[in-house]
Write a structure and sequence with these properties.
Layout: E1 7-8, E2 15-16, E3 20-23, E4 26-32, E5 38-45, E6 48-55
Antiparallel strand pairs: 1-2, 3-4, 4-5, 5-6
């Protein structure tokens, strides 16, 4: 894999094609960061994203 990211459903190990995800019950949008890593944005409503935070999983 060179760039990008992929989602996996934890319980079934199936690929998940959407950028929409839920973290602790909060609807979020995941995307790749400009220089690597993943950015998670909280979705307030279906038209508005807030709180860009890098998510590091080491």
């Amino acid at each position: 894999m060179s760039g990008g990211f992929e989602g996996i459903i934890t319980e079934t190990k199936e690929k998940y094609e959407s950028h929409i995800c839920y973290i602790d019950g909060v609807k979020c949008c995941a995307d790749e960061a400009r220089f690597g890593g993943i950015v998670i944005e909280t979705i307030i409503n279906d038209n508005f994203l807030i709180t860009r935070k890098p998510y590091l999983d080491y």
